[in-house]
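On clarity, I found the account of how folds are encoded harder to follow than it need be. Since the whole study asks how a given chain folds, the encoding of that fold should be made plain. The format is easy to grasp once an entry is in front of the reader. For illustration, here is how one protein appears when written out as sequence plus structure tokens.
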Amino acid sequence: MTVANVPTTLFTGFFGVGKTTAIRHLLSHKPPDERWAVLVNEFGEVPVDGAALEPDEAETDGVVIREIAGGCMCCTMNLPMKAAITEVLRRARPERLIIEPTGIGHPAGILDELRGDDLRDAVDVGAVICLVDPRVVQDPRLREVALLRDQVHLADVLVANKADLAADDDLEAFDAWARNLFPPKAVIETTSRGVLDPALLDLAGDAARVPLFPHLHDHEHDHGSPESLDTGTLSPGKPIRRRSTGEGFDACGWIFDARDVFRRDDLVDLLGPPGPVGNLQRLKGVFRTPDGWLLMDRVRNEMTVMPIAYRRDSRVEVIAETGNIDWTGLEGALLELIETG
């Protein structure tokens, strides 16, 4: 039986704007009789977003999550993206597909693939939703970054997330900036903690939007080769470590044996600001602690810690500007936090 015209929504935005949180909120409002699929692409080699999106046990029916780790699905990952979408559509037969690319992913390449000959009959591409942090809209350095400009430019829906953390003048600046964009957005919204109206998923997209920098991806993206530091079979106290580089960023991730139990407070002290990890862009991890499994989500100098349904293994991915973090030292510090005996 052919799969056709599956409603598909692309979420874009830089590291840490809250894409995964927004998708998790939408999944919690999924009609119980529908089956949804989520395709997530992460910059690093150790996927964590799938764990962060995993619903509570009572909600697992009807949600399929597929991850593509290590790179950007809009360029080097085009073939895996098409293969992953095809696999999800054929096996899960979802009634809705949500795609979350990495924070440095250019949406044009993904949209071209979704609207290309191989996929155009299978998916019905709706509005592109871009999340931004209103606190950085006034930063001229970010306004001049071509990739971020195209993420905003190609969006049909522009959302200022984390409004609860922003000052009034930040929100006013966002509103003035957003309403002067051309072509105008179909929807401009302000929200907190990723709370979005599920009706946004049914908005039509404007296929006539084209990138401001059409050759940006071809000429500026060099994700490099992943460096695998696997030391053998996963076992307690002996994690798997993987590292990749590209776009001026380093990503290093670890997968720990499910039997490893971390001291919670010491873990927060190590990985949270202003701890010894240093200047980082993004950190996301799930850890088993004596108090249960936790999701740690840090964006630069802000971190949240919350319970999570995921139970398979502890894992963490850290992204920083190249040369900012001693990965071997960080691994040693993490190992010292595993309870023994």
